[in-house]
């Protein structure tokens, strides 16, 4: 059995969620990887170094420059005859592309898997992670997105796969890229960070997120947020952690002024250690926190900054 | 132009769902059901397009048990014009829903389908992408802004690194993210008016689609429970514990 994993990459190489998707694919058999974009030679070479991949297929061309779903799904469908499983990380790209490819293959996608039981059987969270379903697919081709937080990523180096060109697929040409507005940050990505510090509505204003910066710097942490904080315009949408935002499972998650709604917990409750600072001792976040501090965040954060510096 | 809006009946987002003790699913008996929150946003977007004069008719479609008719009524009270209920007791999965929606789209010929990005029960995040694929249409998923001009939709999408804007040839499928709009509450007069709006009821067989699930649920289990930890008395104690006990900093 061979699985094909659609990889995402940036200037640093293959993204961590994609390396987690490779780890999930390795539980299924032989693994090939697909690298797409324009000028992706370096990314293809980075992919070839991932341990446990036997072949890297490269689709280099303007059609793939912006990971539009229509041409990417067409490409996956063209490649599908050689594979039993098609996988991608459950990122914005994976979630956009994989179900489209699945429908074209008359296959019911298996979204956001958190475990692999066997070649047909997978575990996936439902109801915002309040239940775990074990599901068995009867489709010939399994199309899967992988919850990156549930699989330790493969190392960036160690392998030496062959690189080959993917056969061309026609671009349906129904959509085109206009522009992107990407948040700039020197910090690690939320889904890859070892430590995440998130602020909620309790932060009161976007301005106050600056209080998190020195702490994030001291801990090498990524900064996240609850939906309420994003909706209030304190921080951009890509900060959102939760059922409908990003799923994270860092070694340490620090929730500041976040009540702990199930939709938020869905995105962080698999973190190894959870810390909550909230002035309301009844806040549900304390039911999942390993360490809870009942305090006003506006006094606690400067103290925390000092403690970490000292 | 016509807009088709699929609306799913799901366990209300405020309900703390419980896994059934026999591991076959979650408890839904006696539980409050509502329209999937993302679908409310989809209905709202369609209604706003109608209010702007872009859309002429909004058709709300729901698939599932007879009570999905109530979900359609909610959409009608928000401003949709008529409803289609595809009634079945089958366990509907996105592929079957997408196939049935495709037949309805072929019949109704909407220019736009606006739907939720994700149903908060199965958390699949798949049906819109699948419908777009089956129709050969463009897709604008996770939309936080939609503008229609002529034969083109410009959609701003929430992606991992921020926002991305794409142009779609119409007809197209758009799936909604949370920040696209804030859905209105239906007013009492509109709830009354909605009672008179037509709902057509059909069966999957009328659409020529076999709704049988492709994924068999082997079991549904409770996730491992997290134990509440301890309260610390000060920031200094917190940092000390993180260093020496949890060893994470
Ligand atoms: C379909 C759907 C999907 C959703 N998806 C997500 C999601 O992905 N992620 C997500 O986060 N939410 C999501 N939500 C929203 C979720 O239900 C909650 O509304 C949200 O998480 C609340 O955010 P919050 O905890 O920041 O705000 P609140 O619930 O308002 O809590 C603020 C907390 O701050 C504390 N506080 C206030 N001032 C201070 C202070 N000075 N010092 C210390 N503490 C203070 C308060 O005690 C309170 O506990 C979703 C909702 C729906 C309907
Ligand atoms: N049974 C259904 N009836 C109507 N619409 C549905 C149904 N199932 C899914 N949908 C639509 O598809 C969207 C995504 O659902 P899903 O792919 O299951 O996460 C929902 O927000 C609805 O708009």
UniProtKB/TrEMBL annotation, chain A:
Residues 3-181 form the Electron transfer flavoprotein alpha/beta-subunit N-terminal domain. The lineage of its organism: Bacteria, Pseudomonadati, Pseudomonadota, Alphaproteobacteria, Acetobacterales. Belongs to the ETF alpha-subunit/FixB family. This is Electron transfer flavoprotein subunit alpha. Binds 1 FAD per dimer. One of its GO terms (molecular function) is electron transfer activity. Transmembrane segments: none annotated. Pfam families: ETF (PF01012), ETF_alpha (PF00766). Keywords: Electron transport, FAD, Flavoprotein, Transport. It comes from Acidisphaera rubrifaciens HS-AP3. PROSITE patterns: ETF_ALPHA (PS00696). One of its GO terms (biological process) is fatty acid beta-oxidation using acyl-CoA dehydrogenase. The electron transfer flavoprotein serves as a specific electron acceptor for other dehydrogenases. It transfers the electrons to the main respiratory chain via ETF-ubiquinone oxidoreductase (ETF dehydrogenase). Heterodimer of an alpha and a beta subunit. FAD binds at residues 201, 226-227, 240-244, 257-264, 278. It comes from the Bacteria. CDD domains: ETF_alpha. Its cofactor is FAD.
From TrEMBL, chain B:
The keyword Chaperone does not apply. SUPFAM superfamilies: Adenine nucleotide alpha hydrolases-like. One of its GO terms (biological process) is carboxylic acid catabolic process. The keyword Manganese does not apply. Its cofactor is AMP. Residues 23-211 form the Electron transfer flavoprotein alpha/beta-subunit N-terminal domain. GO terms for molecular function: electron transfer activity. Keywords: Electron transport, Transport. Belongs to the ETF beta-subunit/FixA family. Heterodimer of an alpha and a beta subunit. The electron transfer flavoprotein serves as a specific electron acceptor for other dehydrogenases. It transfers the electrons to the main respiratory chain via ETF-ubiquinone oxidoreductase (ETF dehydrogenase). This is Electron transfer flavoprotein subunit beta.
